[in-house]
Amino acid sequence: MVLSPLMRHHGGMNRIVSLFAVVLAVVCLGPVRAENQAGNAVELGTFDKGKDDWGYNGGWEFKGAQGKFEFVDSEGHTSPGSMRLGADFSGGGAYVAMTKKGDWPDPERLEFWVKSEGLKGLIVRMADENGQFFQFPIDLQETDDWQQVALRPKTDTFKGNWGGPKDGIWHGNVSQIWINVAKPNCRENQAGSALIDDVVIVPAAS
Fold first, then answer.
1. Can you tell me whether residue 54 is helix, strand or coil?
2. CA nearest 55: which of 192, 177, 206, 145?
3. What is the largest CA-CA distance in the chain?
4. 104 close to 43: Cβ distance less than 8 angstroms
5. Cα separation of 192 and 182, whole Å?
6. Strand pairing of 121-128 and 133-139?
7. Contact 190, 96 (CB under 8 A)
8. Residues 6 or more apart whose Cβ sits within 8 Å of residue 201
9. How many whole angstroms separate alpha carbon 125 and alpha carbon 159?
10. S-S: 67 plus which of 45, 87, 131, 199, CB 3.0-4.6 Å?
11. Calpha distance 96→65 (Å, rounded)
12. Which residues face 182 on adjacent strands?
C-alpha cells in the first residue's frame, strides 16, 4: 500500500507520540521505584517523643566515664527529637553506648543521622541472629551539621568479632545494635557527644 503524504505525516506523529509516552513512563516510574525501596526501611528510632526503647550502657567494666544518654526534644534531623549520647573520659573509662535488642530483617545496611560535638568518629556494634557481634569504626566529618552514617555489615571492614560461631561471616537477621562514643574518638579534652536520629535498617533484597 502506498501512503499518502498526509498518512505518512500522521504515522510519523504517532511514532513520536508513542516514543514520548515511553520516555514519560520511564521518567515517572523511576522515582516510584526509589520511593518503594526507601519505604522498605525498618525504623529503629525516630525519637519524636522519647527513647524508642533504646537503652544505655556506661561501659562499666572500665570505670571512670561520666556518661550521659538523654532525650533532646528541641533538636532533630528532620523534626524535633533526638538522643544525645556523650561522655567525659577525663576520670577514666573507655566507652559509653546506646543499645537496642530486637529481631530485624537480614540487612543491606544500617543508616542513621548524627550531629557531633568534639568527636572524630563513633564505634558501631551489630549482632546477627546467631549472636555474633561485629564492630565497625565510623569516621565523622568535622562539621556542625547533621551527617548520615551508612553501614553495610556484610561487606564493610569490621575491627573485631566475637560471640556466636566466631566465623567472621554475617548470618541472617539483626539481633542487637550498639552505637558507641569511645575515648579514642574524642578530638580533645577526652570528652565528646553526639545527637543521634532517624535510625533505620534497609533490608537486603530477597
1. coil
2. 177
3. 94
4. no
5. 9
6. antiparallel
7. no
8. 41, 42, 44, 104, 105, 107, 109, 110, 111, 174
9. 10
10. 87
11. 8
12. 95
Place of cell 580533645: 188
| Residues in the chain, overall count | 206
> In angstroms, what CA-CA distances link 108 with 8, 86, 153, 159, 203?
53, 28, 7, 19, 5
pLDDT tens string 13-22: 444 434 344 3
Q: For residue 8, give the C-alpha cell.
A: 505518512
User: pLDDT tens digits, residue range 21-43?
Assistant: 433 333 333 333 223 344 599 99
The closest of 60, 166, 52 to 101, measured between CA atoms, is: 52
C-alpha cell at 144: 556542625
C-alpha cell at 116: 557531633
Residues facing residue 128 across a β-bridge: 174
Three-state SS string over 150-166 comes to: EECCCCCCCCCEECCCC
In the predicted model, residues of the chain with pLDDT beneath 50 are 1-10, 13-38
Closest to 114 (Cα-Cα) out of 141, 74, 148, 152: 148
Q: Which of 39, 93, 30 is nearest to 66 (CA)?
A: 93
